[in-house]
């Protein structure tokens, strides 16, 4: 499978975000790229084989990315990521110390897992070899309880009338 590369033009602005938040944003666009392309009439990248390495890679296309986030959406993402990290700092620290199944679990991967877990993507904190720590982090995302009053409910992305990406 080709590696997903987030579309980012303003790399300096993206790099100013903490690794957890960058991971969260990357996971958002990874899971929702096709839907967002369909909504915006943008072309999805296609897969080609690099004949030098025989590795698949994405080519062409103009899928939505970081620069397409509405300012209020980016602010909400930052606030959610900060809140989750603050409230669950002890669990996240334990996950980083544990290292997971590959021994290198970090804050960027945790940001990915926050998006995946809160949105029920079938992968997330619970699936990283973190044991009870992963289960506790998944539960903190509402993994087992889809109650709308949960502090970190599911989010759906969509393209607004202005062409920007929003979360509902």
Structure description:
The protein has 168 residues and is mainly alpha-helical. It is 45% helix and 10% strand. The chain is built from six helices and four strands, in the order ααββααααββ. Helix 2 packs across helix 5 and helix 4 packs antiparallel against helix 6.
Structure summary:
The chain is mainly α and 168 residues long. It is built from six helices and four strands; from the N terminus they run H-H-E-E-H-H-H-H-E-E. It is globular.
| Strands, total number | 4
Shape: globular
Q: Oligomeric state of the chains? A: single chain
Q: Please outline the major beta sheet.
A: 2 strands, antiparallel
Short descriptors:
two-stranded antiparallel ribbon, 168 residues, 4 strands, mainly alpha, single chain, two-stranded antiparallel sheet
In terms of topology, how is this protein built?
Layout: H1 11-16, H2 19-40, E1 46-50, E2 55-59, H3 71-87, H4 89-98, H5 107-118, H6 132-140, E3 157-159, E4 165-167
């Amino acid at each position: 499978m080709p590696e997903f590369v987030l579309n980012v033009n303003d790399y300096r602005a993206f790099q100013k975000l903490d690794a957890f938040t960058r991971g969260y944003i990357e996971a958002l666009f990874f899971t929702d790229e096709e839907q967002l392309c369909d909504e915006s009439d943008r072309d999805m990248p296609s897969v080609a084989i690099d004949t030098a390495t025989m590795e698949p890679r994405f080519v062409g296309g103009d899928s939505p990315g970081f620069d397409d986030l509405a300012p209020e959406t980016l602010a909400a993402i930052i606030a959610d990521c900060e809140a989750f990290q603050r409230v669950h700092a002890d669990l996240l620290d334990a996950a980083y110390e544990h290292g997971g199944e590959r021994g290198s679990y970090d804050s960027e991967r945790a940001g990915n897992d926050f998006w995946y877990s809160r949105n029920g993507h079938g992968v997330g904190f619970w699936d990283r070899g973190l044991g009870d720590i992963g289960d506790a982090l998944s539960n903190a995302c509402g993994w087992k309880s889809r109650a709308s009053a949960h502090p970190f409910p599911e989010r759906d992305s969509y393209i607004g009338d202005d062409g920007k990406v929003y979360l509902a």
